[in-house]
Amino acid sequence: MKAPTEILSCDVLVIGGGGAGCRAAIEAARCGNSVILVNKFPIGRSGTTITAMITYTGTMGQLGICPDDGPDVLFWDVVRGGHRLGNQDLIEVFCRGARDTVLELDSWGMKWDRVDGKFTATRLPGQTYPRGNHRDAITGMMMQRVLCEQVRKHENIRVIDNLMVTKILEDAGRAAGAVALDIASGRFLTFHAGSVVLATGGAGRLYKVTSMPEDARGDGFALAYRAGATMMDMEFQQFYPTCVVFPTSVRGVMVPGAIVYPQGARLINSLGEPFMHKYDPIRKEMATRDMMSRGMALEIAAGRGGTHGGVFIDCSKVPDLVAKHPKSFGLFKSIGMESFDRIEVAPGAHFSIGGIQINPFCESNVPGLYACGEVATGMHGANRCGGNALAETQVFGRIAGEQAAAFARYNAKTDFCEEDVDKEIARVRSFLTGESKETPKELICELQELMYKNAGLIRSEESLLNTLNQLVDLKARASDVKAGGGEKYNLAWIDAIDLQNMIQIAELICVSALQRKESRGAHFRLDYSEPDDTFLKHFCITLDKQDGRTITSTPVIRTREEVES
Predict the structure, then answer these.
(1) How many domains is the chain partitioned into structurally?
(2) pLDDT value of position 4
């Protein structure tokens, strides 16, 4: 029996309403295309862009405070910061385009901080010069506000909130639209599109400790994988070093360590000893995020952590903390934290480096399917340098929108199979009615504990195989889980659907991590604790609908010869 569903048609369907998705929609609309932008929750009040506190990379030259900085210097910072695994074609595009996006956002009303008329900037670990442009400590939130205003100015962009896309529709191997659940009503919508852009962000919520919001569950990875897109570098999941672990009411809130260390803050273990000199003797607390997180994790594993599983950051000597950083320290003070001398922190999942493999046109291997922002991969290599995430959304969001628009313009829409729509609706509805011994939320929490313990910062063949074995059991239990309740605003139903995606992504991370028998960047294995350049390559996973997963490797794309630091 055919399932009831409303069909909406457009030239370009953009899935995800954060920085990358808004930018892609704006660019596609500028090209004259009809655009539908769908977001899982209300646009402007959800997603990860609004959580970004401070920096946006852009080499501003004579317009900024470091006229000697430029794209070539940034290029090598990104290459080295990613431990030479980054796709240099993508790095070139990023370094040449970041400055233009700063200026365009400025023209749209983004009020960047300036000193004597010059764009001021913060220097972050791994960056040669201060190039982290900002707007107070709410850069991401202000950027999202500006982008939403631009989206509303385009009559050919239709925004639909509270839609959870559950399947990318295909025809003859080409993206043709999507199936989505309307969270508010419980109805289903079918989209018929000339091209599809995925801009759904990362999967930080796979882990127990994370700086990412509740909706960062990796929907886009699962959607792309099931549609046949190649997933690459999934073993690389970046952790932000200093996320609060206690009090639990603020667990996951980031302490801006790289900003406060130069002002006198220290990172210490439970014995009161500084320790980063043991793991990065030269840079110490100003090491890159991967090295900071690794050092902290090893210190905790050695038994020198606190009672809540972290180490401590001592910010007692930093002046004007609350005034300078109201989003973090102001929050801590508001919940009654009297002293900032021993804030217990641990690395928290912060950014999904791996994702959908793209080329410089933001094309996936599936014709008509584009990706941008955190859901895409290639530029960062084995580690993302601080400040690059926000700029990445705009550089590649712009390209994805332009290219998706061109594809839709020069390729007639194809039909999709109505039977595929019916099957997908039946699959999603199967998690709604009935009874189960366990709730979706309970299984999500179990998954997060498992991934943080065994497939987080410290891994080994034993821990990864153990995780995969436990995922088999978890997948079987998840397939029988039921949300119960009605169709409207049933968040347990959303949890049940998300759970299936999250388990699938967890499997990809573990399988990829087993392939990489070395330690590089955000990937650290106890049994292969040193980098090995025989693994200076990417591991790719594609869903073979006949034979299951296909795992291949591909060389790193280089455009320039290596030079000395």
Answers:
(1) 2
(2) 60
